[in-house]
Amino acid sequence: MTHENTAPSRRVAVVGAGITGPLLSLCLARLGFEVDLYEAYVRRAQDVGSFLNLAPNGRAVLERLGLADRILEQGVVATSIDFTNHKGRELVQNPERTTNIMRGELSGALRESATDSGVKLHTAKRLVALDETGDGRWRIGFEDGTHAEADIVLGCDGVNSAVRSLLLPDAPRPAYTEVVGSGGRSEIGTGELPVDGRFHMVFGLRGFFGYQVVSPGVVWWFENHQEVRERTFGELAEIDDARWVAGLADRHRPDPAVVRRILNASAGPVGRWPVHEVPPLDTWHRGSAGVLGDAAHAVAPHLGAGAALGLEDAYELALALHEHPSTARAFTAFEESRRGRVTAMAKQARQTGAVMTPDRWITRVIRDLMLPMAIKQGVRKGTEAYSYRPSPWPLTGA
Ligand SMILES: Cc1cc2nc3c(=O)[nH]c(=O)nc-3n(C[C@H](O)[C@H](O)[C@H](O)COP(=O)(O)OP(=O)(O)OC[C@H]3O[C@@H](n4cnc5c(N)ncnc54)[C@H](O)[C@@H]3O)c2cc1C
Predict the structure, then answer these.
(1) Whose CA is nearest to atom 10 of ligand 1?
(2) Is any atom of ligand 1 closer than 6 Å to the C-beta of 273?
(3) Ligand 1 centroid to 158 CA: how many Å?
(4) How confident is the model at residue 363, as a pLDDT?
(5) Which DSSP letter does residue 191 get?
(6) Is 307 in the pocket of ligand 1 (CB under 6 A)?
(7) Ligand 1 centroid distance, CA of 160 (Å)
(8) Ligand 1 mean position, distance from CA 389 (Å)
(9) Which of 68, 140, 242, 362 is buried most deeply by CB count within 10 Å?
(10) How confident is the model at residue 4, as a pLDDT?
(11) Cβ distance 308 to 54 under 8 Å?
């Protein structure tokens, strides 16, 4: 693959090296921009032990850039997503091929590819200030007292985005979804569960459980349940792993025995998070600075769509900045092309969440009656969501 650098040299600061930020940096570097990528952490506690499911539309972006094999090397393909109810009855199978991958591995591989493309990565740099300098440039202040300047600032700093708060103070704040998520890895007897390539989803009575047997005796799992009172990330982290997992096993007592078997065999750290969402913003930019990915639209995780949406954003914004000499115009075109899609996905994620984690028994009864139909509809909509294909890459002919 060849890369010509034809865009005028503009210095870009990308803030946040989770998923959206490294891919955006990589795309911009390939298009000839000079890119500094700033990340608050060296290694994030939130990444420990947890995996995410990358939808086909996310993979399509990586494929278009010739990166899918390299980035997803540590991932495990799921040939279908199989839904069962709390009695173990099979409800529906979604035949889409997706990839489960540890969050830290995905982020790490994206960062590595970005630096290989010429991006300068700066870790332990938490943005705390953002000011226009008067000549159309930006001055960034970091928590450690240092500063940097850039022509364009792009906030990929996630649901609690500092760039969003500083740049667009009237934008909606993250709202707690009354859902707590957690995830980990378990070790069971070799051959106890088949390595069947399927991502299993169980609609439990008091929580939602997903798992895949990724190799003989090794299971990756996640769990979502409702908690009306919000506990902070710090409060959740203080709970001992064994106690947390025992609580989950108890919660899933009425559900198929396989759920408790996996939870009781938990090995290694268990990640857990209060889940927040940010509705898609009305405006994603001011002048030559803006936000994307979760910073612009943190959709509830029930669809497993956020990471893929962030990759789509990154790819499309890089192309828009390449095509439009005016950054503000590039942002306007980008927002127009993305708003409808992310708004529809956010709505669908919220509806799915209500089905996954019902709080009252009557809601549960209705859910169980409606579940097969609702899931079939969800699978159809999911297929629509997966159907995004990236615009052609301008320089490689890919
Ligand atoms: C419980 C749960 C399960 C999920 N499961 C899935 C799934 O299965 N599939 C899926 O596609 N999506 C899933 N998601 C959503 C997905 O994690 C997000 O959509 C995705 O991580 C967004 O990527 P991002 O790069 O925009 O933000 P993030 O991944 O949040 O990255 C933001 C980065 O910015 C850094 N940062 C933050 N503040 C600053 C600052 N001030 N200065 C510098 N750096 C900063 C952070 O440290 C981080 O590295 C899930 C989310 C949750 C909460």
Answers:
(1) 304
(2) yes
(3) 5
(4) 60
(5) T
(6) yes
(7) 10
(8) 22
(9) 140
(10) 36
(11) yes
Strand order of the sheet with strand 147-150?
A: 127-132, 138-142, 147-150
Q: Ligand 1 within 6 A of 14 CB?
A: no
State if residue 183 touches ligand 1 by the CB under 6 angstroms criterion: no
The two tokens of residue 302 are 């029930």
Q: With contact defined as beta carbons under 8 Å apart, do 371 and 203 qualify?
A: yes
Is-contact 305 345, C-beta < 8 A?
Answer: yes
Residue 174 Cβ < 6 Å to ligand 1: no
Query: Residue 200: is it exposed, middle or buried by C-beta count within 10 angstroms (0-12/13-18/19+)?
Result: buried
Other CB atoms within 10 Å distance of the CB of residue 127: 23
Give the up-direction half-sphere exposure of residue 115: CA atoms within 13 A in the CB hemisphere.
Answer: 11
Amino acid at 133: T
The answer, yes or no, to whether any atom of ligand 1 lies below 6 A from the CB of 306, is: yes
Ligand 1, atom 50, lies closest to the CA of 301
Q: Which pLDDT does position 219 carry in this prediction?
A: 97
* pLDDT for residue 39: 97
pLDDT at position 397:
41
11-175+276-386, what's its fold?
FAD/NAD(P)-binding domain (3.50.50)
Q: Which atom of ligand 1 lies closest to the CA of 58?
A: 11
pLDDT of residue 378: 67
Q: How far is the CA of 155 from the centre of ligand 1 (A)?
A: 12
The rounded radius of gyration (Å) of the Cα atoms in the chain is: 21
- Under 8 Å CB-to-CB from 209, ≥6 apart: which residues? 201, 202, 221, 222, 223, 252, 255, 259
The pLDDT of residue 27: 98
The per-residue b/e assignment along 50-67, b for 16 or more CB within 10 angstroms, e otherwise, is bbbbbbbbbbbbbbbbeb
Write out the two tokens for 44.
């994030």
**Could you say which DSSP state residue 46 is in?**
G
Residues of the chain with pLDDT under 70: 1-9, 44-49, 352-375, 378-383, 395-398
pLDDT at residue 45, rounded to an integer: 62
22's tokens: 């490294």
Encoded tokens for 187? 């070790």
